[in-house]
Specification:
By secondary structure, the chain is an all-alpha fold. It is built from 10 helices and no strands.
Length: about 350
């Protein structure tokens, strides 16, 4: 227990040194009444924030006007250390008490365990003695069995060696027979390959002779067929000439067709000037109507009648082009575009004027 007391005193002394606790000055230079008033006010401002701390300092200055701000701040910091020290001290005391309680419990448990271990040891000793006696009996039986087993193994080993020798002898004879058989097969293969090589040489010789004979026959046939070859070559040249003539005839037909088309275009071409002034002039009825100046000009005719459209040269030209199948051709479009009216219609004029107008 002295060791626990020393441990507690050492830890307590370290806490005092850590938090600067002095036994000679228990209230940090303040008298008891001022300190009790300080603690009471501080309890009213628990869970302090910065604003509450400021209010707390102002309250202390009001209650204790003879205390300076530094004295209040120092005493506040000292009191916070004192509270922390008290909490740490209680924790240290509790931990020492718990440790002592655990130590006592473990000591009692160890004593109980030692008694149980002694009893178990005695039981194990008795069991061991019984096991030793049983082992001696089994050892004796095992020795007898071992001797018999060794004797039987020696006999089996002798028999096995004899069997191995017989087996090796049979294997040797079998290998000898196999070697002789393979040697015989090898000799037969050599003879067979020699025979095949000889046959191949004879066949090559015969093939060479046959090729010479075929070359001679082909030379004779070439001389005989020279006339046929010349005749076929002449026919081939004639066919080429006929094909060229056919191509020339086709090209000539194309040229003639294009000439006919040109003549047709010239026959339907109209070189006239379009006069839009006549189309936009007032009709006789309009002129007659304008004579009466008292009546308002309610209407103005800006279109054309069907007869006027049919009389137009551009319409007649479009009908002739459509009749000959040239209305959608490039030539037909170019001819129609060349006949644009010199004067723009009133309903197509724009009120917007550009700088070049």
């Amino acid at each position: 227990m002295k060791s626990f007391s020393n441990l507690y005193n050492d830890e307590l002394q370290q806490l005092k040194q850590e938090y600067g606790i002095s036994n000679s000055d228990p209230l940090n230079g303040w008298n008891k009444l001022d300190h009790e008033r300080f603690v009471k006010i501080l309890d009213e401002y628990s869970n302090q924030t910065q604003e509450k701390y400021t209010l707390f300092c102002e309250r202390i200055k009001m209650e204790l006007p003879y205390k300076t701000s530094n004295s209040i701040s120092n005493h506040y910091n000292w009191y916070q250390r004192q509270v922390t020290f008290s909490i740490k001290k209680e924790c240290l005391k509790k931990s020492i008490d718990d440790y002592i309680e655990k130590f006592i419990h473990s000591t009692i448990q160890n004593i109980t365990d030692e008694k149980i271990q002694i009893q178990e040891f005695q039981v194990r000793q008795q069991e061991r003695q019984n096991q030793l006696e049983e082992m001696q009996t089994r050892h004796h039986l095992l020795n007898n069995w071992r001797k018999n087993k060794i004797q039987s193994m020696i006999e089996n080993q002798t028999q096995l060696q004899d069997q191995i020798k017989n087996q090796m002898k049979r294997e040797y004879e079998k290998n000898q027979n196999e070697r002789l058989r393979r040697l015989e097969i090898k000799n037969n293969l050599i003879k067979y390959h020699d025979m095949l090589r000889q046959q191949k040489n004879e066949e090559m010789k015969l093939m060479h002779e046959l090729k010479l004979k075929e070359a001679q026959i082909k030379e004779q046939e070439r001389k005989v067929n020279q006339t046929r070859i010349e005749y076929r070559e002449k026919n081939r040249l004639n066919k080429l000439k006929e094909r060229e003539m056919k191509l020339q005839a086709i090209m000539q037909e194309k040229v003639e067709l294009e000439a006919r088309l040109d003549r047709l275009r010239k026959s339907v071409a109209v070189n006239v000037e379009c006069d839009w002034n006549r189309a936009i002039q007032d009709t006789v009825s309009v002129l007659e109507h304008k004579k009466n100046t008292d009546r308002p000009n309610w209407y103005q005719t800006v279109g054309f009648s069907s007869d006027q459209i049919i009389k137009d040269k551009r319409m007649q030209l479009s009908m002739q082009l459509y009749k000959h199948g040239l209305s959608q051709s490039t030539y037909g479009r170019d001819v129609l575009l060349s006949l644009q009216p010199p004067v723009q219609r009133l309903d197509q004029k724009s009120s917007i004027r550009f700088e070049h107008d």
